[in-house]
Amino acid sequence: MADTRPETAGRPIRIAIVGVGKIARDQHLPALAANPAYRLVAAASHSGRVDGVPNFGTIEEMLAAMPEIEAVSLCMPPQVRYEAARAAIAANKHVFLEKPPGATVSEVEHLKALATRKGVSLFASWHSRYAPAVEAARTFLAGTRIRSAAINWKEDVRRWHPNQEWIWQPGGLGVFDPGINALSIATHILPEMFITQATLDFPANRDAPVAAHIRFRTADGTPIGMELDWLQTGPQSWDVLADTDAGSMVLSGGGARLAIDGRTVHEEPEAEYPMLYRRFAELVRTGKSDVDLAPLRHVADAFMLGKRSTVAAFYD
Amino acid sequence: MADTRPETAGRPIRIAIVGVGKIARDQHLPALAANPAYRLVAAASHSGRVDGVPNFGTIEEMLAAMPEIEAVSLCMPPQVRYEAARAAIAANKHVFLEKPPGATVSEVEHLKALATRKGVSLFASWHSRYAPAVEAARTFLAGTRIRSAAINWKEDVRRWHPNQEWIWQPGGLGVFDPGINALSIATHILPEMFITQATLDFPANRDAPVAAHIRFRTADGTPIGMELDWLQTGPQSWDVLADTDAGSMVLSGGGARLAIDGRTVHEEPEAEYPMLYRRFAELVRTGKSDVDLAPLRHVADAFMLGKRSTVAAFYD
């Protein structure tokens, strides 16, 4: 197998983008264009188009027309991601999944098994884990005792997800769409944790929550609170805070800056998607997969265990 | 380790019951009394009592007072099961978990890891899997092609769960409390499947659903429908049906009877809890665990992906 893998052969991975929406244009296409490990050879989308490559209406048409495709990056909404991933894996393609990796935990477990069986690389990407200060925060926390922690993710949905209808539909996750980014960081830097209590606020006219108030605990009882809010105007908060024996930690800006006792110890410009694509190339080259479901599992747990409250209707 | 395990030494396992409610009295205590592989030595419960053994208010008091306990069977509501399981595992006890094994998928994953670390046996029991005709159904389905399947679990909550308040609270799962029994059978006899669409009906005055309408599909696209209803009066339905190349299969009575094309091919009286305790003794004796989370994962997926609809208030 190894010598047929593109990276081993020293030539770019022939990759296609599926789902040409906001995230593909904002992040995936620029990251691919800047990385010589890839050559973008096609795109498939119901609505969007990519200039300079063949465009198809569906992934099935694309895979049938262009057998030279080696990998696909799936950027469509999670509700329809499984079908595309399954088609790609069945056709022996390596698969990059935008977050969240699927609409259910079970379907991603299944994709994982399929990819293993087919010997292709599957990458459930969590872009926030590649924020610049995340590894420094992880190292800091590993060396101290955590007394409590708080995850605060408060942003303005009208600014970041204007008129994205899918996000309010069942399976679109609502405020957990950004919230799962917080969870992807928290599950990477904090000890193993799980939800003990949750309240999810649903706008009267929507099928997904606009806010959530969650209590986690770690195995040894350390309390971790999480506040998700999608109606935050003014300054936006994407912070993980921890009160520790080595001082008060604030990881802010979605993982961009780390401060201990008010002193910034790590800050650099973000390069999340470039790093994701570097990671994916490495997975393809080494024949590995990387599918950590902990963030999605917590979201499912929050929906299962959470109390629902109805709040004011939301209009974009 | 092996020679300290009670079964290897040929003497009964000293077991304690925690949570002395309806299920403990109806099922666990009779099953234990009838099985010479166990000796019931204590009970812990906020409210209930077991005659003839020392009774404690909490598991912590019980474990502290009676170090000779080797195993515990946890029969309290799922919302508080983790804490007790963790205390028991930390004290090197083997643990039998009533279904569902916890309030979140994540916490049970965590218990699994803890049990492995401690070298004790953890059993996430799914009693319906031990219904008499389940294995015959599994064998039948493994030898044919399934065109479609349906899971119908329709019972009268007032008859089976009278005034069980916890079941309507967040984490109590509502109609998924019996529905997870159906899922424990379905995930055992049908190919791997996952939810593509769900609607959950919540009574206006309750935090858990009274009905659910779910569509699954298998990896190769076979459709599986699931209907859960907790307001079924008259005849009760606990059926898994499959349309197959080898005929029409009906597994009814919660797994008690198997019929192919209308002809009963397997029927015997149920002995689910006796079989569960036989299985647990075997796990303890062989130093193994059995923790299949697929049924609980599907429930979490249904809550995450499901559309909520509000229906008439429910009063016991």
Describe this structure in words.
The structure is a homodimer of 316-residue chains. Chain A has 316 residues and is of the alpha/beta class. Chain A folds into two domains: 13-125, Rossmann fold (3-Layer(aba) Sandwich), CATH 3.40.50.720; 129-269 and 300-311, Dihydrodipicolinate Reductase, domain 2. Chain A is 31% helix and 28% strand. Chain A is built from nine helices and 15 strands. In chain A, the strands form two sheets. The first copy, chain A, has a nine-stranded mixed sheet with strand order 14-13-12-11-7-10-9-8-15. A six-stranded parallel sheet of chain A has the order 3-2-1-4-5-6, with helices on both faces. In chain A, a hairpin with a 2-residue loop joins strand 11 and strand 12. In chain A, helix 3 packs parallel to helix 4 (105-118) and helix 7 packs across helix 9 (294-305). The longest helix of chain A has 15 residues, at 272-286. Chain A is globular and about 55 Å long. The mean pLDDT of chain A is 95. Chains A, B: InterPro entries: Gfo/Idh/MocA-like_OxRdtase_N, Gfo/Idh/MocA_oxidrdct_glycsds, NAD(P)-bd_dom_sf. Chains A, B: This is Gfo/Idh/MocA family protein.
